Amino acid sequence: MIQATAVLVASLLVARGDGTKRQSDAFDRMAPEEAGYSRAGLAKLEEFLAASGSQSLVLVHDGKIFFEWGDIRKRLLVHSMRKALLSSLYGIYRAKGLVDLDKTLGQLGVDDTPPSLSDQEKSATLRDVLKSRSGVYHPAAAESEGMAEGRPERGSALPGARFYYNNWDFNVAGHVLEKVAGESVYGIFNRAIAKPLGMRDFRNRLAGSGEAATAEDADGFYQHEPERSRFPAWHFRMSAHDLALYGQLHLDRGRWKGKPIVPADWIDLSTRPYSIENAEHGLAYGMLWNVLVPDVEGERPSFFHTGLGVHMLGVYPKHRLVMVHRVDTEKTSRFNDGDLYRVIRLMHAARLPTKSTSK
Q: Which domains are assigned to the chain?
């Protein structure tokens, strides 16, 4: 009885945001003040979320939710956050000795529709691909108009020499892993990540599967564009709740309830700042993750991935924080990438000042 009362009180302490009834889920709750956040600051964040057209936001401190807005259990298309979901799978298969990051595309048997890959392009390693530094500028499935227009000329950079955020690299990374594992990225993710973490909303239902999932309802589906490339894009739908579990796994360096799920050395390796994108703001790219260059040498970096500039999964080790923001981009939404920056600023502004220990 006492324990049940404590759970009820804890749930009431959480800054809920929109006042909707909360479904049961995998997280405990804590008061914002316990997490080091101001209710007044979070109230400003709530106001902006309501006005901007956000679908959901969840903030987690040390594995406990202290702020949530909207329906965090609704599955939505993750867009480019799919790359971060692939990262953990590479860490697992690398630890098994089944993935060699120094193998070249040629050794892996990777080629594409004519004009086929040159010998120079085939000399790119899997490590280059994961860093989006392959130097392969072949058209790709799910390539936006802007990406296509900005794509460098074929052969204009040696493998490893230039960072270019390239869907060809990411699509091929999924293909290589599937070939090594002998199953889909969705099946691997379900078995190696979703089930061990107790994800509540990812069901591993694929479009066109025997479960008759439609593309609109599926947890995963391939986007084939054979006129561009033989490698499809692989898309996920996930809830903010399940993405927050994934973020917490990475905050805890790959351990879940004391059990290693993803090797810690892989999380460290994949979240190093290999390619500086914006030196002024300390923005870099690692391997399948965006990375914020630490202000202090030796400090563990924060890392994140966005999708369409409006979705975001962020992991902030210094503050023991996981942040997930979602927008229903399969419907008309007024939320834009400028709004996401505002959400991030308001989130950080809500943090209570730390007390000085100096005399």
A: 2-74+239-249+304-349 (no CATH), 79-237 (3.40.710.10)
